[in-house]
Specification:
Strand order of the largest sheet: 1-6-5-4-3-7-2
Number of helices: 14
Distance between the termini: 118 Å
Largest sheet: 7 strands, antiparallel
Strand content: 15-25%
Length: 384
């Protein structure tokens, strides 16, 4: 000890400095953090292992403390220099998923079955979900008249392969009778929509007939089809549709839930041999009324050959210029038109064509196919 130290010691021992105390160092948050971390290190040194979450209360506190340091960058950086036992691994930024998992795995969430049930989906919601899934999955049945639709599916498959048909993003306005879709790799055809109405969300709904290229069909709700299309579906668009001028004029998608009218096929009940003797004689027409209203006075109307008629088929059409579509049918069967005068009138909407050909033509024209009609073979042919 040198003279300065001896002098300082002598001064401090003077009674005058009896009440002088060394200034106390106030512990900071960093000091407390390091001290708490040191307690974890002491536990590791004593027990030769890290504290466990399922240990006694004091050990569980140490586990939580260490876990908090590991997950907080600022705390980690402060404690790392004091980590003599190397219990702090390299810091890794937590993801949102990590944070959520940490919360849910916290011992505080070890709930009793009764308490945990508070987080369960209510039974009525489970049942509604099960009903929705059962409706979509469970009502696929074999399509008994699939052969009628097979040529349409063949045309779509060929069109997709050759590039004349393409898959586009599904939109609500595409939910129109006669439209093809691809759902999870399966081609589907919206053949019918019945009992159209607004659901609680003011969206169009109704029971549909949907045909699939695997030879099955379903009668699911329109909203169920829309849901599956939004999740994993596309609309099939015929690119030739815009290239053919008369077809381009035939269809215009507008507000789809507004009906354009009815395309109908009628058969005469005339007892006149000049008419009744003609096989496959049908009238193809369009009306904005119901078909029944339109034909109410048929026996007094030259358009109907002054005789009552039988309704063979009718299609309620949406989102198309139905008059133009009717004209497209008339143009297609022009060479098969009936040449007969009814009094002073000359009805022009009667055609000598098998009904199955008319039905096929309606479906194929809706798809935008370019077709013609061979009167000798009585079959539809591809238009050159």
């Amino acid at each position: 000890m040198n003279k300065i130290d001896d002098w300082l010691k002598e001064v401090l021992q003077n009674p005058v400095f009896a009440d002088v105390k060394p200034q106390q160092h106030r512990a900071t948050s960093s000091d407390r953090l390091v001290k708490s971390f040191q307690e974890v290190l002491d536990f590791v040194d004593k027990n030769g292992r890290l504290p466990k979450v399922d240990g006694p209360f004091e050990e569980k506190k140490l586990y939580t403390r260490l876990d908090g340091i590991k997950k907080d960058k600022a705390k980690y950086d402060k404690c790392k220099p004091y980590d003599t036992s190397n219990i702090l691994e390299e810091y890794q930024e937590q993801t949102q998923e990590d944070i959520l998992a940490s919360i849910l795995n916290n011992p505080a969430f070890n709930l009793s079955p009764e308490a945990a049930s508070l987080f369960d989906m209510p039974q009525y919601m489970k049942e509604a979900e099960e009903r929705a899934q059962a409706e979509y999955i469970g009502k696929h049945v074999p399509c008994q008249d699939f052969e009628k639709f097979k040529p349409l599916f063949d045309a779509v498959h060929k069109g997709i392969d050759e590039g004349t048909h393409k898959l586009i993003k599904f939109k609500e306005a595409h939910l129109v009778k006669g439209t093809f879709f691809v759902i999870g790799g399966v081609v589907a055809y919206l053949a019918e929509i019945k009992n159209i109405h607004k659901d609680k969300n003011n969206k169009n709904d109704g029971r549909i007939r949907c045909i699939y290229d695997n030879g099955t069909e379903s009668d699911i709700l329109l909203r169920s089809l829309a849901k599956s299309l939004y999740l994993d579906g596309y609309t099939v668009q015929n690119t030739l549709f815009n290239a053919d001028e008369h077809l381009k004029k035939s269809f215009t998608i507008t507000d789809w839930d507004v009906a354009s009218g009815f395309i109908y096929v009628l058969k005469s009940k005339s007892v006149d041999p000049a008419i009744s003797s003609i096989k496959d004689l049908y009238k193809i027409g369009f009306t904005t009324q119901t078909v029944e209203e339109r034909i109410a006075n048929a026996k007094n109307d030259a358009t109907y050959l002054y005789a009552d008629v039988e309704i063979v088929a009718s299609w309620e059409v949406y989102n198309i210029k139905a008059v133009a579509f009717e004209n497209a049918l008339h143009k297609l069967f022009k060479k098969a038109q009936l040449k007969l005068a009814a009094g002073v009138a000359h009805p022009k909407e009667w055609y000598i064509v098998p009904y199955k050909i008319i039905e096929e033509a309606v479906s194929r024209l809706i798809q935008g196919e370019k077709i013609g009609y061979d009167t000798h073979l009585q079959k539809l042919v591809g238009e050159e």
